[in-house]
Amino acid sequence: MTATVTMWEAKAPAGRGDDLAAWARQHAPADARVYASADDRVVVIAPAPLALPEPPGDLRDRPPHAWDFTELTAGHAAP
Fold it and tell me: Hey, where are the domains in the chain?
């Protein structure tokens, strides 16, 4: 069995990273991991498929992006 996750990334306007991170924590599933960077980016990693709503326009500098990944570490087969 392979593990698949979705990585969702969004960039907040300068100084709004904490607000975007709070929004992401509120909307992400309970088993998701939410990360924030010093440059106002927020990343959510969760089991695929991940379907987050669009963040409010004032919390994003550009539309978010999402990618699906399959784990290749020991114990997991390649697709």
Answer: 4-70
The conformational region for residue 23 under phi > 0 = left, psi -120 to 50 = alpha, else beta, is alpha
Per-residue model confidence (pLDDT) at position 74: 65
What SS3 state is found at 52? Answer: coil
Is pTM beyond 0.85? Reply is yes
Residue 45 is encoded by which pair of tokens?
Answer: 């990693």
CA gap 22, 29 in Å, rounded: 13
Q: How many CA atoms lie within 13 A of 17 on its CB side?
A: 14
- Tell whether the model's pLDDT for residue 38 goes beyond 80: yes
Token pair listed for 60? 């994003």
